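@channel sequence for tomorrow's demo:
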Amino acid sequence: MVQKEGIVYLVGAGPGDPDLLTMRAYRLLREADVVVYDRLVSEAILALIPPGTARISVGKQPRSHPVPQHEINNLLVRLAAGGRAVVRLKGGDPFLFGRGSEEASHLVHHGLRYEVVPGVTSASGCAAALGLPLTHRGRASGVRFITGHCREDKALDLDWRGLADPDTTLVIYMGMATIAEIAVRLISNGLSELTPVAAVCNGTRPEQCCVISTLGEISAAVAALDGPTLFFIGRVVDLVPTLAPGRSVASGSWLPSHARRA
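structure tokens (generated this afternoon):
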């Protein structure tokens, strides 16, 4: 009997809402032999995997990587070399701060097939859920996606002067642990400490909450947030109170009612 050829699908799961999955991502989840998934994949999306399909969690916590990237790479090779159809399920988009290119390179090196299935990145998904345009005439003529976490937890080494541009929206991924440093660096390079900032926690999910503050105060304002958090920095944040879909958002903070009572 000839063994079937294995393949790895690098699938973007989006920011959490299963309705934001692409049709191809949904179909592959239903057809996969095994799903290798990250910590940021929501339970609602994992629930779409049929009973009996093998699941392997390789999730990382901030500053804690129980399954190092090289082990994930080798796991994908072993599974695909065994003739399996593997879905490597990642939050957001696999080629945007998702290490998908590292895994793709490792698979190619071992002569194995892979395919990228793009996902809704957290920046656009969370911004839409909040009613926050990433660009807007007169407020932001560009947008930059930045990671707040460096490889092996090294110090951030970014183009701070270039980032401190009042005409650009900054979106900070994985920045909860470093938002205080990011704010100080941006302010010291010329961005006003009064620049509005929105921090969205568990974006697009039922438990989504948001804190709206300023660059000078954002670090203290988000201290109580618990969950994956995305930061939007720039003048477009001022539009949230009028554009937020189906919500009334006041200045200061916007949290679920149970959080406001805490």
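heads up for whoever presents: The first strand starts at residue 7 and ends at 12.
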